[in-house]
Amino acid sequence: MAAVAIRGLGKDAAGQEGLIPILHNVSLDVADGELLVLVGPSGCGKSTLLRCVAGLESIERGEVQLDGRRINELAPGARDVAMVFQSYALYPHLTVRENLAFPLRLRKEPESEIAARVAEALELTGISALVDRRPSQLSGGQRQRVAIGRALVRRPRLFLFDEPLSNLDASLRARMRVELKRLHARLRATMIYVTHDQVEAMTLADRIAVMRSGQVEQVGTPRELYDRPANLFVARFLGTPEINLVPAEALGVVGATTLGLRPEDIYFEDRGPLAGTVELVEELGRTSIVHLLVGDQRIVALVESPQAPQPGVVASFRWDPERLHRFDQHEQRIA
Amino acid sequence: MRRIAVHSILIAVSIGVLYPVLWVVKMAFTPSQTFAGASTSWNFHPTLANFHDVVSSHDLAGRWLFGRQLANSIVVAFAVTFVGLTLSTSAAYALSRFRFRGREASLRAFLISQMFPGVVTSIPLYVLLDRLGLLNHLAGLVLVYATTAVPFCVFMLKGYFDSLPRELEEAVLLDGGTHFDAFWRVALPLARPALAVTALFSFLTAWNEFILAYIFMSQPTAFTLPVAIQRYVGEYTTEWGHFAAAAILVSLPVMVLFFALQKHLVGGLTAGGIKG
User: Fold this and answer.
1) What topology is assigned to A4-236 in CATH?
2) What is the model's pTM?
């Protein structure tokens, strides 16, 4: 496996008003055996960054290193990286077995070696029964397994995943997420995983890099990013339901402009310092999401279902001051 | 009531379309060489005499003309198909996948070349072939047909390559392949339906072409079949029976090809236009 270092990476695209930066001075490190998730909204440059590492996009500024060696000028096939695409990119005219053997045949591996490695990848991805089918005869989940198998069979130094679960339905996505995590734990391979789904990012990642407008906003473990978001964007992007953002003066806090309060850090109490009218309650089973109106400010709370007040009542609540996130006028976290 | 009206119209149109064909079939199987009245009377004794005469035609030197002309047509049609497909698949792929200087200009040039009827270029082509010493040579005819077939094939195939997801070729590059591997091992096998329909159109263009072959070929042994058929139409008399029999013989391979490639033809025609 390999460690990845991205240094000052920049890339522009030609637009109607000249060059538009897609990636702006991106620097990141991925440790050997680590699973780094790049997450951000559509158009933030995360897929472009991944494609730069893969060699599918040219690098205009900065460099990408694999185990300390610059790979900017290497062709995609010479980088020893494997990529799983959102669209699976399986070869439609080949069977599952032929798809898996394809990269090895290109490299002119001996047939006995190809057979052994294909069998190993089939076993790892659990698709042994499908070897003679063509991609059109497979379900979405099965196709994704084949795509992962085709990446595994190469035993590359680095795995790249470009929104691999986006085309799957919700329940299958959750199952595949677990399988990917299990696979990573088993292989301890270096992986860079792109997604716009913050749940996928939180559950899969060893570390997350949150991106916006071609820049990395914050890098850290899921817990670090959730507990100590560097700015309002990261605070808003991670967490479901979204963090409550209120003006600091509304809660009488000085030295900050905006306060962030996670919905699960709100507790309903008879003599809480604030009260609001319960607009509606979303039952999720064990927990409920309570939507409150405090003056003209909307506040969302996530509580154990038995503690949820009834819609229409005025409920008072408190919060954990230790868990209050403070941001300045530039939307940056105040330590 | 509406269905009866629709069916009546359809039947009438079908008769209208098929009538001339049936007329030709009847003329071919009628021993006489006359035209008048052939369309109305179905009271005749069909014979294969016309077919026999056409197939066994010889020139004064005793050379088997029909055999030569059939061979000429086959050679020209296959050569044009081969040249057209070989040159246009790689050109279409490059135009679809790569951005290079002159790309837009070549696409426009291909398009403009399709706008002129072939006969417009017949005089300059005649002069060119004359200077190259290729008049009355099949190679000259292949060259001329290929110049019209290639742009057409390029457009057909480019449309198809455009519809193939780029990720497939990117996957090949990441798997350690080259751009040629992506073309040869993935894009080309996937383009089979489009290749079939393009090949068929190239073949038909060359097989059916008359005007240019008539202009460039003056020796009966160098004729292709469409020119040979025309020779049955004289200045004062026309051998209608022979003409019709020869027309049917020329159409037979085309019909066989159409039936054989019917499935690919429909697939190929729609494949380029639909994504995914």
Assistant:
1) Rossmann fold (3.40.50)
2) 0.82
